[in-house]
Specification:
About 75% of the residues lie in helices and about 0% in strands. With about 500 residues, it is mostly helical.
Length: about 500
């Protein structure tokens, strides 16, 4: 784009001139003052400063080039505060200006591209977001402020992460940390460290992720960013959940939900409810999982949050699988697959759905198809460096191999899963996989299996077949402290699940 020009957006001149006397003229000063608030994370103050000045313009639907930067700053504040309607109106007006190829100076050029790319990403159109970002001229990026460049780096990092380009995402996060420091913005530092923590969590480096989230929390506290605090609680909850510490994860999700609800942050509250639904599923409380996930899925559709809709569908599919309701699981997976491929074919949601498709094939007694699907999931996970999903795929692969009596391949798959889970610091599934390995190494069935029952699956959950604590008397590979923080009921559920647990398989030996 050309820069340093005061040409107006192409609309009838009479319409513009009739409003000139109603509009402020010192927009550069307004932008400078609004940036003071945004640098310290005072999003509400920035909004309250800009809204009275821009509201008449939004109502009129006419934007001048010198007003673009202030409009972009308002969009940033509205995005952070969850003002979806205000933001939508502002983005539509901004789209009209950029479509008209209006000459802008460096800062508003970059901010406008950022705002529109963020809108694309929020709608799940990551390719369009990347195209907008890559279309920004190099001289614009060099001349724009550190604050604006840091926000752009975080957005590009988000796009890279959704495309499963973890190394590129990490590079953008590290660049954002440096730019946030140059901008002297504690709020932006919190965002940058939160993003790096998310990358670490995606890789399966759960301990490192927890440390980075703690660093981000300190910057949020220093900045007085309550919305950031709610998101920080949410992110920590996801990490703790992946570690298998379900009680602590539920506590953090509930804290995040309360904080987000008090601030009117619908998207954050929705993500917290999704997390609580997944915790219920991992605990074996399938009825409560469904009662949480179904409304969350509907809300994600209403709020037009495709990623959250995809997550809800994959968690619902898993819940239906664990309940033995295969028809509903198949429907949820079909819907989720279409959505995931639209978001990013190599992304995390697409990978997680592929793993659940292998689980469905297992449940439908098609082990060879499950093996093929799980192998593809393993390749996908290796390709994009996602350790958590890699471990899940290996676990399913091991069970599928057992279904066709290929014990050596099953052991190899389980050992690969165990190694990954140990590196992550995960506890619940590590115990289950270690039990699978012990069971395969047990030459004969234990003399007493406790209280035996017929294993059957119902819509309300899975009945227990025996006391799983008697399954393997000595797990030599696990320390006593590994049981700390685990819920015995959740461990029992997974050890004894008729589809995925070692208990029923052992009884059939």
């Amino acid at each position: 784009m050309n820069r340093q020009s005061n040409q107006r957006y192409a609309i009838p001149r009479r319409s513009i001139e009739s409003t000139d006397n109603q509009r402020g003229t010192d927009w550069e000063s307004f932008a400078s003052q609004a940036r003071v608030y945004l640098l310290v994370g005072a999003w509400q103050s920035a909004h309250d400063f800009l809204w009275p000045r821009l509201h008449p313009i939004l109502t009129l639907g006419i934007l001048l080039p010198e007003e673009v930067e202030c409009l972009c700053l308002l969009i940033a504040a509205c995005s952070r505060l969850g003002h979806a309607e205000h933001r939508a109106v502002a983005v539509r007006l901004l789209q009209g200006v950029t479509t008209g190829n209006i000459p802008l100076s460096y800062e508003p050029t970059l901010l406008a591209a950022h705002c529109l790319a963020q809108a694309d990403a929020d709608e799940g159109n990551y390719l369009a977001a990347r195209t907008r970002i890559e279309g920004i001229p190099d001289d614009v990026t060099r001349q724009a402020s550190s604050w604006a460049r840091a926000r752009l780096a975080l957005l590009l990092g988000r796009v890279e992460l959704r495309d499963a380009n973890l190394t590129a995402a990490e590079q953008q996060g590290l660049e954002a940390v440096g730019l946030a420091a140059a901008a002297e913005s504690e709020s932006l530092r919190a965002d940058a460290f939160s993003f790096l923590a998310l990358v670490a969590r995606t890789r399966g480096s759960l301990m490192e992720s927890s440390a980075l989230y703690a660093k981000a929390a300190r910057y949020c506290w220093q900045a007085g960013d309550m919305a950031g605090h709610a998101v920080g609680l949410l992110n920590r909850a996801w990490t703790v959940n992946q570690m298998g510490l379900l009680a602590e994860a539920a506590r953090l999700f509930n804290e995040s939900l309360d904080a987000a609800a008090s601030l009117g942050r619908q998207a954050t509250a929705l993500r917290a409810r999704l997390g609580l639904g997944w915790v219920c599923a991992r605990e074996g409380d399938l009825r409560n999982a469904r009662s949480r996930l179904l409304p969350a899925w509907r809300e994600a559709r209403r709020l037009k949050l495709p990623r959250e809709e995809g997550l809800a569908l994959e968690y619902l599919a898993e819940t239906h699988l664990l309940s033995g309701d295969l028809a509903k699981a198949r429907v949820a997976l079909s819907m989720g697959q279409r959505l995931a491929h639209r978001l990013a074919r190599e992304g995390d949601v697409a990978l997680e759905i592929r793993i659940r498709e292998a689980m469905l094939s297992l449940a439908e007694d098609r082990p060879r198809k499950a093996i093929a699907q799980a192998r593809e999931a393993v390749k996908h996970a290796k390709r994009v460096g996602m350790s958590w999903e890699h471990a899940q795929a290996c676990r399913v692969l091991g069970i599928a191999y057992l279904r066709i009596s290929r014990k050596p391949e099953a052991k190899t798959a389980f050992r690969a899963a165990l190694e990954l889970l140990e590196k992550m610091g995960e506890r619940l599934e590590r115990r289950v996989v270690a039990t699978w390995i012990k069971v395969l190494e047990t030459p004969t069935r234990p003399q007493s299996a406790g209280k035996a029952k017929v294993v059957r699956s119902t819509g309300g959950g899975v009945e227990k077949s025996f006391d799983a604590s008697t399954l393997v008397p000595d797990l030599s590979g696990l320390d006593a402290q590994d049981d700390a923080g685990l819920r015995p009921k959740a461990l029992q559920f997974w050890l004894d699940h008729p589809l995925l647990g070692p208990g029923p398989w052992l009884r059939r030996k």
